[in-house]
Amino acid sequence: MTVGEALSDARHAAGLSVDDVAARTRIRPHVIQAIEQDDLAPCGGDAYARGHVRTLARTLGADPEEMVGMLGSTAPPAPVVPATKDGMDLEGDLGKPRFSLDWTGVLAVAVVLMLGFTGYVLVRDLGGAKEAQSAHRPVVRAVATPKPTPTRTAVAAPTSGVRVVVAATNGPSWIRARNAAGKTLYEGTIGKGEQREFADRRRVRLVVGDSGVVTLTVNGHKMPTLGAPGQVRTVAYGPQGQV
């Protein structure tokens, strides 16, 4: 019996197909079929053939050394070279998956590096352009405008216009405000806590429905209470005060 026949019998006894054994040993199906036919050429050499036979024997529950010893009936004996390649035993690791370079990952890393470098160049060029623009930008210096020297004959300008603030401090009140031309500035009720402001160059005339609940401020000066609660009052104010 040759080693190929022995391995084929062991595979059938184990109830495994060639593809099953290939999946377990990582040896290609056509190589397994060739070994079972005592054709060791697809193995790529005597050392690889011994490694494949050992791996198949272990997987199929046979004696690996016995199967390797049967290779003499199939191929001329060759010296066993315990050489290693890249730190890997040629015979012991033949059934294990070999290292393969993931070109997709390498390509992705290369793309990321290229994009990063391109972004760096753009930022660098943009920064240089801004610096160049700043270097050529004219410098504008503020020149202090001399203040006019006051003279002894200067006279303060008279106050122009009137500004009246009506605040409903103690309750709601109806009011109506008109300017010097008779135009109605506001007519309605202001609630407690609310206030209205009216202004005119010459005069503001007010009609207050409840003079006891509102306070007036004219040109920043608080005025006395207009009257008693519920009393209707009509008042007018100009730039110099009440008119």
CATH topology of the domain at 3-89: 434 Repressor (Amino-terminal Domain)
Helix content: 25-40%
- Give the low-pLDDT segments: 75-100, 150-158
Mean pLDDT level: 79
Number of helices: 6
Largest sheet: 5 strands, antiparallel
CATH class of the domain at 3-89: Mainly Alpha
CATH architecture of the domain at 3-89: Orthogonal Bundle
H-E string: HHHHHEEHEEEEEEEEE
- CATH homologous superfamily placement of the domain at 3-89: lambda repressor-like DNA-binding domains
Give the overall form.
rod-shaped
| Rg, Cα atoms, Å | 54 Å
Spatial ordering of strands, largest sheet: 5-4-7-10-11
- Strand percent estimate: 15-25%
Q: Total number of β-strand segments?
A: 11
Output the structural class: alpha+beta
Distance between the termini: 137 Å
Quaternary structure classification: single chain
Describe the structure in your own words.
With 243 residues, the chain is α+β, with helices and mostly antiparallel strands. Helix content is 34%, strand content 21%. The protein has helices at residues 3-13, 18-25, 29-36, 46-60, 64-69, 103-136, and strands at 84-85, 88-89, 162-168, 173-179, 184-190, 195-200, 204-208, 214-218, 221-222, 233-238, 241-242. A hairpin with a 2-residue loop joins strand 1 (84-85) and strand 2 (88-89). Helix 1 runs parallel beside helix 4 (46-60).
